Amino acid sequence: PDLAAFESLVRGHAPKFFYGIPNSQNPSGRTYSEGKRRAVAEILEGTDTVFYEDDAFGELFFDGKPRPPVKRHLPKQTVISGSFSKIVAPGMRIGWIYAPAPVLRQFNVAKQAADLHSNFLCQVILHRYLATHDLDAHVARVSAVYGRHCRLMCDLLDDLMPPGTTHTNPEGGMFMTAALPDGVSSMEVFREGVHEGVAVLPGVPFYVDGGGEDTIRLNFSAAGEEEIAEGMHRLARVVRKLA
Amino acid sequence: PDLAAFESLVRGHAPKFFYGIPNSQNPSGRTYSEGKRRAVAEILEGTDTVFYEDDAFGELFFDGKPRPPVKRHLPKQTVISGSFSKIVAPGMRIGWIYAPAPVLRQFNVAKQAADLHSNFLCQVILHRYLATHDLDAHVARVSAVYGRHCRLMCDLLDDLMPPGTTHTNPEGGMFMTAALPDGVSSMEVFREGVHEGVAVLPGVPFYVDGGGEDTIRLNFSAAGEEEIAEGMHRLARVVRKLA
To answer: What's the pLDDT at B57?
Structure first.
């Protein structure tokens, strides 16, 4: 985040709640630096704001080194949650939460009112998987593959897209954001892309009050390297046509 | 529901939403008569109120005959939902919803924002179970057992409890409500019951604005007939002590 703007919002509005994704943010793939982590914690320390640290992507760093969570700098005010969706199987819909005891008690009541409890059978299956498999080795394999995919996609964006295209350089996760040349609309790229058989997500739905018209989110986790190469060639054709 | 009070609430407040359980309501086990179903539909017809018909227990009638849903009398304004929790396995957390198309579109967006989607693995397991097993035969077996349990529990309430105790007479479901003799507190019965190894749920949490201090919810689905008999003897001792 823009630290000056963030500090002024926290001081001016005393929000109850700040939601952030410090690791490989969706949609940009951006990661807070260690300095930003400390600064965010310092701004929030002692306020009534709870920091909700969404860490769905925290294990998927291409260099294999998880970053220390913001919670480490702000233990009493931070709720951190993660998911087995990105590292084991998305269809199980099982995640975890780590929060100060009073928050956790309230959370349990709210969750019970919302859904009684999480799917029990898949919790047992997941527990068995975790007890009998080396999850760290699996995560390391997956992260290495995603890292190769990400580098390939970045290189192809640099090589194939018309001048004025920029992109983030994720250190982990599954997504990156590309900014299109002046005057190219992400919604048009989305619509034309679908006709060419390449799917991108316009940035617009990621902004609550406007923005993102010139950005697209690209996913590098699911497709293989040949598909990524073919997709980037198709996407470059679409953007060149509209530029 | 009290039809006059219900009509006056609907006319006076034009609620967006009315939530009801016409079949074997939790906690009372009460079922709307066919006349009440028609009357509720007539009161709501043409208003802006959506009737949310929670039908979690609709298959579990002891006589094996599901009642026609209120939705049949009010098809355009009724959302009806059911659950596999009461007839297949609660731990799967899988249910269904049947709603007018515009409601369903909104519901799908809201559900996707809330939880992305339901557990996929257990949907596949459930689909397989439904395709290869006779669910109706299973439901008939379960309903017959619950019916026997319910009759046993009613008989024991009549035989063992002190004068002034009354109870509902469910036609289906898993629950009944008993009203305690004057001056006996359901919270005290709950606390004393736990010491005697018998668990009942006080009626209090089922009332949003007071009430239920003299009622307890009894569950007849999980325990076997011997356990029910033992439990009712213990409960009667507790209530006699407090009466």
So the answer is: 96
Q: Tell me, what's the ipTM?
A: 0.84
Residue A80 banded pLDDT, cuts 50, 70, 90: very high
Overall average pLDDT of the A146-175 stretch = 97
- Residues B23, B128, single domain; the answer is yes
Question: Do the chains contact at B119 and A93, CB–CB below 8 Å?
Answer: yes
What is the DSSP-derived secondary structure letter of residue A195?
A: H
Residue spans of alpha helices (H) in A21-70: 34-44
Q: Which stretches of chain B drop beneath a pLDDT of 70?
A: none
- Its domain, for residue B120, covers 3-132
Residue A1 has pLDDT above 80, yes or no: no
CB contact under 8 A, B121 and A117: no
Give the residue on B whose Cα is nearest the Cα of A125: B121
Q: Could you tell me the CA-to-CA distances from B232 to A55, A225, B23, B102, B215 in Å, in that order?
A: 50, 67, 25, 48, 15
Closest CA to A79 of A111, A114, A103, A59: A103
Q: Which long-range contacts (CB under 8 A, 24 or more apart) does B163-168 make?
A: B164/B243, B165/B239, B167/B218, B168/B28, B168/B29, B168/B30
Do A12 and A128 belong to one domain?
yes
Q: Measure A121 CA to nearest chain B CA, in Å.
A: 6
- Provide the number of structural domains found in chain B: 2
User: Same domain, yes or no, for B110 and B142?
Assistant: no
**B189, B224: one domain:** yes
Is the same domain home to B121 and B147?
Answer: no
A92 with B117: Cβ contact below 8 A: no
